[in-house]
Write a structure and sequence with these properties.
Strand order of the largest sheet: 1-3-4-5-2-6
Distance between the termini: 44 Å
Structural class: mainly alpha
Radius of gyration: 33 Å
Largest sheet: 6 strands, mixed
Number of helices: 45
Strand content: 5-15%
Oligomer: single chain
């Protein structure tokens, strides 16, 4: 893929010589649309235009026109043009174009999944440019773009919708590449303008002929123009073919034919022009057509068995004929139609043989593995060992930035190998693993199912089943994962390291399923052996596992010690940073802290861990970081910020096409909306959390059950609410109870008591007794136990004790609930006066947290007690009148006015850039605006200072 430097590129870039110097004809409507898009971006809004059409219809010419217009309007233009060889290339050409033009060179992420790093680095570069000038990103021949660039084009137009960026893609209408189809679908959903370039009317072809010939075409020439079917490129080539011969004469301003036949070198197609060329030029063009639109003269010479010097006459002839250009270090076909015509005129057997030879030649000189891979695939096999090695390298290089494309290539390579080749299974296993990183999970598992019956060796089957288990675990189907793991462990003669890996994954699966006894039994010395390992990641992983089993047994203090030590070690050992959730030490530490008296420490732990994960490009972990922050903020009663983090979790998962968005995040959103009073939204989130889960989602079952019960309770369905809790909280062991933070436990009891069967409420009480018997160090656990006892026994003294215990734990909604529960008990007595202060305090706490439904319920209760109250007002209303913005959203506005990018704002506020992205999305929605420019204008008009950000 070639890129153009905005600083010194000529409009149109390389490859448009066929069109340059001639006026653009017949595209007035398209120019109007393009100008409107430019004006929209200049006004502060992003825009996207997709130019579609057949080859030669004028897509590149329209982009060249747009390039010139954009530069005249002061745009910073970033232009890339794809090549057919780029389809298997690793890395993003768009990123390279941005780096080469501004001199930046942000280091790549040292991870096997670079998608997040890729998106963030390109976002940062474009946001920074858009602060200085509007930006136009032009991608020509996008149907051939490298997979990483296509991934970026699918994602960033939505992420950068509020920035001054114009996206323009030119794509062939007949492309069959699935990834290109997904780009088109995503951009169409985002509202991209679609320009389909059809054939030009005959009159416009007459104008083109006049432009080329310098005179109007005669009726004879006009008749010949009908043969180009409205294709402007072919019309230009036809007229140039006449102009370069003596086949026309000029009389009275009209160009006429001297004889009524097309010159032989045109033959009604570009390929016919070869007939008048010397043999050296013809052979050069034939070999070049195999090598690609751009090709190296030295490589062509080697394939021809010639010295470069002996080809100079052929090069000169091809240049003089206008078939090639030599503006850079490589020879370039002046239009891909020319290359295609030459390539397709070669017999199929010759084409495939030449592609095979090209692959061998390029591999010898150390060419890009993606380039060699394309030729091998075009040759159709068979492949030798060297070719397989090169293709495997291309798959591996591609996997970090475009795992779905890597999986497709791996399967194509496997198809070139004979059935008995052991490397087929390795490639198919890799393909399944890569597909498992994307939304194509079902394809990954289908591939596993199709490969297993092939009579695999034990080791091959073990690896394949391990991949399947990890995919199932990532998708939340822990039961299916355990089946694969057990079947793998039953295989004979497995190496010890493979068995250990299988056992570790199985033990983690038991933790996911809440079966701590089984996890401990699976251990069988694994933890002890791990502590003797020289690999720091193994030691840290074992420490986290031990902390998890101890935590779910109820030994919170010891679990916290182990989690902190694991986090400390991970901070000094980079290898430990790449553990998968929930084994990431800091992530697990935050989970433990959320259930202890050190709830406030979770904010620091999660912020630092999240930002480090972003810096390292650990994109697969980010949804979990955001979901963990959402849970911690919900526990702290910060409903608005909890919702933002939950949305950010879903947004990142969607951007990175992660297997399954965390149902925990959806459950948090449902719980927040129940508190706010929007039960319809809560129901939508709950349905999304339950989609595809059912009994499989035991890992997040307690969260989903909690949300389902809360919604049913809010809708007055007491029996349904209590029934929703049975599956997750009916055990007297603390394991499942500890899956949700402590402030939710009294609510579980309250809902359970609304039904005639008190078994769940008694089970929660029993679990709390077991928990406090094992660990009395946590004040929050004592307060929750007092609260639960107060509800079960209708004991005011226990509720007073709970209120006292909650006051220093940083859990305002738990305190509000205890106050309301005590108020209800007191209101049932003859003297209701003592209840009023507790209801009032509960209402104030609910208001401060944004729990509008709770506040309204308490307000009604106070009115029943004869207390006049003011109507519920949203606590987030901005004093500046900037809509209904939260406190966190208001902090962003002065920084936007200062001109800071989202990345810079995130750095200033020490939060994730994805959190800032979500806040900005909310601000635009609430204020009814679409861009940062509009926000800045509105803020200035309403007197928001740029100084109050700190």
């Amino acid at each position: 893929m070639s890129s153009t430097d905005p600083a010194d590129d000529q409009a149109g870039g390389r490859g448009n010589q066929a069109m340059t110097g001639l006026r653009l004809r017949g595209r007035d409507r398209e120019i109007v649309v393009v100008r409107e898009a430019l004006d929209a971006v200049r006004g502060g809004r992003s825009a996207c235009v997709v130019v579609e059409g057949t080859s030669g219809v004028g897509k590149s010419r329209l982009l060249a026109e747009l390039d010139g217009m954009a530069r005249r309007f002061g745009f910073d233009v970033v232009s890339v043009r794809a090549d057919e060889l780029d389809q298997y290339a690793a890395g993003a050409a768009l990123q390279s174009a941005l780096q080469s033009s501004d001199g930046s060179n942000r280091a790549g992420a040292a991870t096997d999944d670079q998608r997040l790093w890729l998106l963030d680095s390109i976002t940062d570069a474009l946001e920074d440019r858009a602060q200085r000038a509007p930006v136009a990103v032009l991608v020509d021949d996008a149907q051939w773009a490298d997979p990483a660039t296509l991934f970026v084009l699918r994602t960033l137009p939505g992420r950068l919708a509020a920035s001054r960026v114009l996206w323009v893609l030119a794509v062939r209408s007949d492309t069959e590449r699935p990834t290109v189809a997904r780009v088109r679908e995503d951009l169409e959903r985002l509202g991209a303008r679609w320009l389909t370039l059809g054939p030009l009317p005959q009159q416009e072809l007459h104008y083109i002929a006049a432009d080329v010939l310098g005179s109007s075409p005669s009726p004879g020439l006009a008749r010949l123009l009908r043969g180009v079917a409205g294709n402007p490129f072919l019309a230009i080539e036809l007229m140039r073919a006449f102009a370069e011969t003596d086949a026309v004469k000029m009389e009275a301003g009209e160009a006429s034919l001297l004889h009524d036949s097309i010159p032989s070198r045109f033959r009604r197609s570009i390929a016919g022009r070869l007939d008048r060329l010397p043999e050296d030029a013809v052979r050069l063009l034939q070999i070049g057509s195999v090598l690609g639109r751009e090709f190296d003269l030295g490589t062509a010479a080697r394939m021809l068995g010639r010295h470069v010097g002996s080809l100079l006459s052929g090069v000169e002839a091809a240049l003089n004929a206008g078939l090639l250009s030599a503006d850079g270090p490589r020879l370039v076909f002046r239009h891909d139609l020319i290359r295609q015509a030459v390539h397709e005129n070669l017999p199929l057997a010759v084409r495939t043989a030449l592609h095979r030879e090209a692959a061998d030649s390029l591999r010898v000189i150390g060419a890009r593995s993606a380039e060699v891979a394309w030729h091998v695939v075009m040759s159709g096999g068979p492949v030798d060992d060297d070719a397989v090695t090169t293709l495997s390298t291309a798959v591996r290089e591609l996997s970090s930035s475009a795992p779905d494309a890597a999986a497709d290539l791996a399967q194509r390579v496997a198809g070139l190998l004979p059935p008995q080749d052991r490397r087929r299974i390795s490639l198919l296993t890799d393909a399944a693993e890569y597909l498992g990183r994307t939304r194509r999970v079902h394809e990954a598992l289908d591939l596993v199912d199709a490969t297993l019956p092939e009579g695999l060796e034990s080791l091959q089957e073990a690896y394949l089943r391990l991949v399947a288990a990890e995919i199932h675990q990532a998708a939340g189907d822990d039961a299916a994962a355990m089946t694969h793991l057990q079947q793998a462990l039953d295989l004979p003669a497995l190496p010890p390291d493979v068995r250990v890996r299988l056992l570790k994954t199985k033990a983690t699966g038991h933790v996911y399923l809440g079966d701590i006894t089984a996890a401990e039994q699976t251990d069988t010395g694994l933890v002890e052996a791990a502590y003797q390992s020289h690999d720091p990641a193994v030691v840290v992983s074992a420490m986290v596992f031990q902390s998890q089993t101890i935590f779910y047994r109820g030994h919170l203090a010891r679990a916290l010690e182990l989690a902190e030590e694991a986090t400390r070690r991970a901070g000094t050992q980079s290898a430990a940073l790449y553990l998968r959730p929930p084994r990431i030490p800091a992530l697990w530490l935050a989970t433990v802290l959320t259930s202890t008296d050190r709830l406030a420490d979770t904010e620091r732990i999660l912020r630092e861990g999240q930002r480090e994960a972003e810096a390292l490009g650990l994109g697969w972990s980010l949804p979990h970081w955001h979901a963990a922050r959402a849970c911690a903020l919900l526990e702290q009663g910060a409903l608005d910020d909890a919702a933002v983090e939950a949305e950010a979790s879903l947004m990142v998962a969607d951007e990175l096409e992660i297997t399954l968005p965390n149902p925990q995040a959806r459950s948090v959103l449902a719980l927040v909306e129940i508190r706010r009073g929007d039960l319809a939204k809560a129901a939508d989130h709950l349905r999304a959390a339950e989609t595809g889960s059912g009994t499989k989602m035991q890992r997040y079952g307690p969260w989903v059950s909690l949300a389902r019960a809360g919604l049913a309770d809010a809708e007055g369905e007491d029996g349904e609410a209590a029934a929703a809790l049975t599956g997750s909280f009916a055990s007297c062991e603390p394991t499942r109870l500890l899956a949700v933070p402590p402030s939710h436990w009294p609510g579980i009891v309250r809902i359970a008591l609304g039904d005639e069967d008190p078994s769940v409420a008694q089970a929660v009480s029993g679990a709390l007794r077991s928990l406090t018997a094992q660990d009395e160090s946590q004040q929050i656990i004592g307060a929750v136990r007092a609260h639960v006892n107060g509800l079960l026994d209708r004991d005011p003294r226990a509720l007073v004790s709970a209120i006292t215990g909650y006051r220093n734990t940083g859990r305002p909604l738990a305190l509000a609930a205890a106050c309301e529960d005590l108020g209800e008990l007191m209101a049932a007595s003859a003297d209701t006066t003592p209840a009023i202060p507790y209801f009032e305090e509960a209402g104030q706490l609910a208001s401060a947290s944004g729990a509008g439904r709770d506040q309204e319920r308490i307000r009604r209760r106070l009115r029943q007690l004869g207390v006049r109250t003011t109507p519920v007002r949203n606590h987030t209303a901005s004093p500046q009148g900037l809509g209904n913005l939260t406190e966190s959203e208001q902090k962003l506005i002065p920084l936007v006015v200062q001109g800071l990018t989202n990345r810079a704002i995130a750095d200033r506020l020490y939060v994730s850039v994805h959190t800032v992205n979500t806040h900005m999305k909310h601000i635009f929605t609430k204020l009814g605006i679409n861009s940062r420019v509009e926000l800045t204008r509105l803020a200035i008009e309403r007197g928001t200072s740029a100084d109050g950000a700190d």
